[in-house]
Amino acid sequence: NINFHNLSLNCKRFLTNQQLTGSGKLSVSGNTTLTIKAENIFPLFTNYNFHSFSNIIFEKNTLLPKNIQFGNVEVKSKINLDLINTDSLFISGNLIGAGKIKNHKNIIYNGTEKQKIKRMDYATLIYNNSSADTSSILGTCIIDSILILNGKILLGGLTINNSEVKKNGTLIIGSSNPTFKRNLIIEGLVTL
Would the N or C end of the chain have less CB density within 10 A of its end CB? Predict the structure, then answer.
């Protein structure tokens, strides 16, 4: 273990294969990529501040200790990001990679630009994007609940059990014909 009070990363790339701990804050600037290179060694700090343009790459199986707002997240192939200790994963950038996100409850996309939304099954996907651009989730994934609070999202051939489009949200249904199984509540805009 390497102990810090606060750790501020403002470099191009920071690789860790050891447990980093701190009683203060881990800050990751917008030009920094933090790469987790060993099993279950996510830095343990009291607080986290990941800039919306920062990057974190999971190259080994990792258990996330608490709810964290990330910028861009990549989960490498054959790797698990386990969210059993959290109720929400916040993404202000893109969520990419062939790895798996396990035990998730809410994945919240809350960016200020168009976001890449990972093709995967979701318990709850919350979209709260302030950009004028349209993000999309394509493929044949299953979403138990989708909540569109703000922004425009294009849906592919998904199966969705419960959907809600709030006043500032826009749901765009393309040519892939998503299937809505149970509830569809519309306060905002739906474009066919």
Answer: C
